[in-house]
């Protein structure tokens, strides 16, 4: 499944059609934000069985709306944070260049 968490853990006791323990992941799609599911650990591979089973019941529409809204706000905030980080580095480099220039002017 796309948009699932990177961290997955083996779920003992549930075996897929490949004969392997399934992994537990969390969906972050618009339709199922934060909903956990079990899946074949080889999901996406050509020879995988692609076993899939929801662990959590479907979420209430209000819950989905709130979570998706928060995820969108977080995404915007993360992008702003990256821009602020670059501006800060730029100013820091500018500060050191100016300091070096002033020191060189004082010495020579
Ligand atoms: Zn499998």
From TrEMBL:
Entry keywords, A to Z = Membrane, Metal-binding, Transmembrane, Transmembrane helix, Zinc, Zinc-finger
Where is each GRF-type domain found? 16-58
Tell me a Gene Ontology molecular-function term this record carries.
zinc ion binding
Highest taxon of the source? Eukaryota
Pfam families, from UniProt? Zn_ribbon_GRF (PF06839)
Q: Where are the transmembrane segments?
A: 90-107
InterPro entries in alphabetical order: Znf_GRF
The protein's matches in PANTHER family, at most eight in alphabetical order, are given as: ZINC ION-BINDING PROTEIN (PTHR33248)
Instruction: Output this protein's name.
Output: GRF-type domain-containing protein
């Amino acid at each position: 499944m796309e948009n699932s968490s990177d961290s997955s853990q083996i779920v003992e006791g549930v075996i897929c059609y490949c004969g392997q323990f399934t992994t537990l992941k969390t969906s972050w799609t618009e339709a199922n934000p934060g909903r956990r599911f079990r899946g074949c650990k080889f999901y996406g591979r050509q020879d995988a069985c692609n076993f899939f089973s929801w662990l959590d019941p479907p979420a209430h529409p209000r819950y989905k709306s709130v979570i998706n809204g928060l995820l969108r706000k977080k995404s915007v905030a993360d992008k702003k944070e990256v821009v602020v980080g670059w501006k800060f580095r730029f100013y820091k480099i500018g500060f050191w260049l100016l300091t070096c220039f002033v020191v060189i002017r004082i010495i020579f």
